[in-house]
Amino acid sequence: MSNRWIQPGDNVDITNERKKCTFDIEKMSAFIHGGEDKLQRRREILEYVKSNKSLGDPQPIEFMTRNERVENASRKIVEMTNNTDQIDGSDFFGEGMYYQALTMGRDLHAMSLHYVMFIPTLQGQTDDEQLDHWLSLAIARAIVGTYAQTELGHGTNLSKLETTAHYDPKTEEFVLNSPTITAAKWWPGALGKSSNYAVVVAQLYTQGECKGPHPFIVQLREMDTHKPLKGITLGDIGPKLGINGSDNGFLLFDHVRIPRRHMLMRYSKVLPDGTYIKPQHSKLGYGTMVFVRSIMIKDQASQLGAASTIAIRYASVRRQGEIIPNSGEVQILDYQTQQYRLFPQLARAFAFLFAAYEIRDLYMKVTEQLTHGNTELLPEIHALSSGLKSVVSWDTAQGIEQCRLACGGHGYSQASAFPEIYGYAVGGCTYEGENIVMLQQVARFLMKAAEEVKKGSANLAEICAYIGRKGEQHSRFTSVDSYRDEDIVSDLEYVARQQVFRAYEKLRKAQQQANSETAWNSCSVELCKTSRWHVRLYLVKNFLAKVSTAPSDLRAVLHDVARLYAFDIITSSSGNFYENGYMREDQMNEIREGVYKCLHRIRPNAVSLVDSWDYDDRELKSVLGRRDGNVYPALLEWAKQSPLNKTEVLPTFDKYLGPMMREAKSKL
Ligand SMILES: CCCCCCCCCCCCCCCCCCCCC/C=C/C(=O)SCCNC(=O)CCNC(=O)[C@H](O)C(C)(C)COP(=O)(O)OP(=O)(O)OC[C@H]1O[C@@H](n2cnc3c(N)ncnc32)[C@H](O)[C@@H]1OP(=O)(O)O
Ligand SMILES: Cc1cc2nc3c(=O)[nH]c(=O)nc-3n(C[C@H](O)[C@H](O)[C@H](O)COP(=O)(O)OP(=O)(O)OC[C@H]3O[C@@H](n4cnc5c(N)ncnc54)[C@H](O)[C@@H]3O)c2cc1C
């Protein structure tokens, strides 16, 4: 079988790995990326990005100062968006995200929020007339916007946001104000220096009543000079753990007036006389968050896929220690512990990517239904996107760290790209709703389902139908080889269902003794566990179902990966499966053996599996993960670019170290 990943001059070990591959990598790449046509488009976009020198970095960004990073990112995003004819702009999830990942990397930039939240909010929250006016300006890039919701004092609890928008019917204007320091908007991406517009979420007051948080479009800076408008104070919030190419910002209003029609009025409205028209569903205004939570799943999967690619490739070229004495040092990928550390991360990346396709499809369905005023699926997409966002971003962050650790010392260097990948991805645990908080949103959905079941209703959404099923009292497991997909799912359903009812009963009891919120708080650890099990069950079910749709010659290898994902979940929570004698210790021990079997079976295909994700070096940006495996000369070249190496002797020597040593020597 031909293999496009093998080229002359490559490291011998990585080449040998690729020669061992038992499946068609191109076919696998097409399956992973949604079809041959999609794969072909990836290749065309890559070719274009590589051919346009202006889309490149003048030096590795790790060696740049923050100001240089912001400038470099701004230059590239303008060049990138000057050339959007290179992609199908309607395919944000596929071509848009790939084009931006290749060009911009993981440092974000002046227009990330413009594309990820500002434009989607205009699309989702404006009425027709507003859409006509604002969307064309935003798409043409005549204005650059962000999404300013979080404040210094409140991010999670939107009902307590402090920024106010008081309607004045005399002038038909809203007056935006930040009454306290804690009302300052804080965090919005590209707010500090780049954006001149923002969707600002503020408490709407009309006719003397507060109507809760609503979105408004607000001009922040003068069009020509880019100076802040009167009454507006804003700036950058300083360096962060990651995404330092983005100027996340702060913003305060001092009685700034905006026209009535700058309130986004697709769902809620304020009429000229101040009459408030409420939306059909109270959370329709939160739609952009649901959108971002949905696209985050793919983004997080890509980051974990990249980390796994780097670590697995590196483990195939790194030789250290002997397994059989005097027979030469082995590739570290041959250590079972290394496989145990890395292959589950790759398996997770697959599980998350396949879930990302599902949530994308559900999001599109919900959007379509909303155009007809149908809000039926809102609770389901809110629960699923919140749950996936939380579990996926957490596992991704932990997985990236495992990959880093598995690369030893070199994993700690920024040459590996791990610090950048981690700094970028771990933000996902916090933004778009702190994970623990979002898990509790899922739990609300699950507790309602449990209540329905208790009441004898069979009317549950498919996603939580397992809660109403009776299920087996004992696992059907007899041996790993005969452990069918439906048995795996049934075992996970048992544990997820048990946890739902454990939390439900605990909550019910607590509610008899305390008010609803206090009761909820006293059960919240169990409630979060419930949500995690629900999401893991979904991920496993979806992964196995997806594998069954793969071309037949890919199914065996993918099935090993999917089973590893499931077995890893089961064995790392064995206690839950022993409850009520559902599973025996000997059965669990067999499943544990199943993990080792999967590792052994995946080992020969490990490098080819990560090649199938189709990361180009341009996207990975990692010396350790480079396609050709020639890591050591590349590390030396990378280090030589350090600004500290521009001179043989640093001024600090003459200032500090030199005098110290000379003085010490003179005293001897
Ligand atoms: C032309 C092409 C060009 C191409 C260029 C392309 C360039 C592309 C660039 C691509 C880059 C790709 C990378 C993508 C990812 C990376 C992006 C990084 C950017 C990060 C940006 C971050 C932004 C933010 O963080 S914005 C701020 C987000 N904030 C939050 O999420 C706040 C969290 N809090 C909440 O959501 C709520 O307050 C909540 C849910 C905690 C509680 O709300 P509440 O009002 O107090 O409600 P509650 O009483 O608890 O519940 C009431 C009821 O309502 C239900 N509910 C709540 N929310 C929703 C919802 N959203 N939808 C539906 N229902 C909801 C809730 O469940 C309750 O229901 P019941 O139980 O029935 O009562
Ligand atoms: C990289 C990054 C980019 C961001 N970009 C934007 C942006 O573009 N626009 C924007 O508006 N915002 C943005 N944010 C802000 C982000 O959305 C918020 O930080 C996030 O929603 C969490 O809110 P918080 O900071 O108020 O956390 P807090 O709510 O203060 O959380 C602190 C702790 O309290 C816990 N906690 C809070 N409430 C509860 C509860 N009810 N029950 C149990 N535990 C609770 C949390 O679990 C957490 O452990 C960004 C943040 C980051 C890190």
TrEMBL record:
Domain annotation Acyl-CoA oxidase C-alpha1: ranges: 286-447
One Gene Ontology CC term in the entry: peroxisome
Positions contributing to FAD binding: 150, 189
Gene3D superfamilies, sorted: Acyl-CoA dehydrogenase/oxidase, N-terminal domain, Butyryl-CoA Dehydrogenase, subunit A, domain 2, Butyryl-CoA Dehydrogenase, subunit A, domain 3
Cell location: Peroxisome
Active-site residue numbers: 432
Keyword ATP-binding: yes
Domain Acyl-coenzyme A oxidase N-terminal, residue spans: 24-140
GO terms classed as biological process: fatty acid beta-oxidation using acyl-CoA oxidase; lipid homeostasis
Family annotation (Pfam families): ACOX, ACOX_C_alpha1, Acyl-CoA_dh_M, Acyl-CoA_ox_N
Keywords on record: ATP-binding, FAD, Fatty acid metabolism, Flavoprotein, Lipid metabolism, Nucleotide-binding, Oxidoreductase, Peroxisome
Main location: other
UniProt pathway: Lipid metabolism; peroxisomal fatty acid beta-oxidation
All residue ranges annotated as the Acyl-CoA oxidase C-terminal domain in the record: 486-661
Cofactor: FAD
GO MF, one example: FAD binding
InterPro entries: ACOX_C_alpha1 (IPR055060), Acyl-CoA_ox_N (IPR029320), Acyl-CoA_Oxase/DH_mid-dom (IPR006091), Acyl-CoA_Oxase/DH_mid-dom_sf (IPR046373), Acyl-CoA_oxidase (IPR012258), Acyl-CoA_oxidase_C (IPR002655), AcylCo_DH-like_C (IPR036250), AcylCoA_DH/ox_N_sf (IPR037069)
Domain spans labelled Acyl-CoA oxidase/dehydrogenase middle: 147-256
Family: Belongs to the acyl-CoA oxidase family.
Protein name: Acyl-coenzyme A oxidase
Organism: Caenorhabditis auriculariae
Phylogenetic lineage: Eukaryota, Metazoa, Ecdysozoa, Nematoda, Chromadorea
